[in-house]
Amino acid sequence: SKLTNLGHLEMTWRSRVHLHPLLVRILHKSRLRYYGKPEKTMDMPYQAYFEVADGSGMMSMVLWSSLCPEWYNSMKVGTVLLLEKYTIKDSYPFKTQPTPGDSQMKRFATIEISLNVRNPPTKISIIPEEMVKPEWGLPEVKYRFITRSELDNLPHNYSCDVIGLVTFVGRAERARKRDHCEDFWLYRWAHTSDETSDQPFILELFASSQPDVFERIHPMTYLVCTQMRVVRDLSENPSSPIYLTPSNESQIFITGWHKGQPYTKDTKVKNFIQCMKLQSEADQIKKTLIGGYYPFPRPPNSFSDY
Q1: Model confidence at 167, in pLDDT bands (50, 70, 90)?
Q2: Is the pLDDT of residue 302 over 80?
Q3: From the CB of residue 49, how many other CB atoms can be counted at a distance below 10 Å?
Q4: pLDDT at 140
Q5: For residue 244, which phi and psi values (nearest 5 degrees)?
């Protein structure tokens, strides 16, 4: 069928009655958002953002309502989609923006693709990777993997991807989403290590839309976390440890979930796996811990400092 691209769509969408199909690859995927309220009666008050791209650039795509439970788990980073009967809207100005792995990619930020179950009913087709043709010009998924030795030199709020061997995983804890509300985040702390430093990555991980992966994090698994943000507070305490926290577009993967993921082609991921194969498993197991109370960031040493 006759296709259009994102760049052409941005220039012509207001003047078009019928929008041609789009062929795009998913580069980023947000957590699933529930926006239901007691006073409103909606069957499926769910929403999820994706960043999709073709040869012309990258644009946000929004999955709405009952399409979320039907499609959210099938739409992975790297998945190629054929979209028909979608709508175009002015973009929501306050949404989070992931950091693209390819800094040269053009971003179309003024509009977004909207996929709905009606008005009109969107048709979504997933194209298997083996059927994707090079002449379609779809970009590959690119990452910003860092090693532990590189972390100390990175600024606050820097966006990065990490891979490491889990050496510690804390118990699951809850934190209120907002003061005086009854909604909670479920989170846990984890340590991962690589061969570049004696210090671990300290990771704050939330269950969000991946409770199955979150519950299975345990020592001696390879853990990949994407779109993490560096947290460092040098103003109050220069010696305070640096840790990584998720963004709205973060994804976590453990052993058993890695097969077929685009990051398996990344050079730093390949180097890490190669180095781990040379390590003694018995020595690694001696360094692992699980559970217990883990207060972090740690309070000052004395009460007067606190």
Answers
A1: very high
A2: no
A3: 22
A4: 95
A5: -115, 135
Could you tell me the residue ranges of all domains in the chain?
A: 6-136, 148-305
Mean residue pLDDT of the chain comes to: 91
* 3-class secondary structure, 268: helix
- Of all residues in the chain, what percent are helix, strand and coil, respectively (each to 5)? 15, 35, 50
> At which residue do the structure tokens 């309070």 appear?
299
Into which CATH architecture does domain 148-305 fall?
Answer: Beta Barrel (2.40)
Give the confidence band of 239 by pLDDT, cuts at 50, 70, 90: low
CATH fold of 6-136: OB fold (Dihydrolipoamide Acetyltransferase, E2P) (2.40.50)
Q: In 3D, which of 30, 80, 74, 77 has the Cα closest to residue 54?
A: 80
The half-sphere exposure of 142 on its side-chain side, counting CA atoms within 13 A, is: 12
Q: Give the model's pLDDT for residue 183.
A: 82
- Report how far residue 20's alpha carbon sits from residue 1's, in angstroms, rounded to the nearest whole number: 8
Contact 169, 188 (CB under 8 A): yes
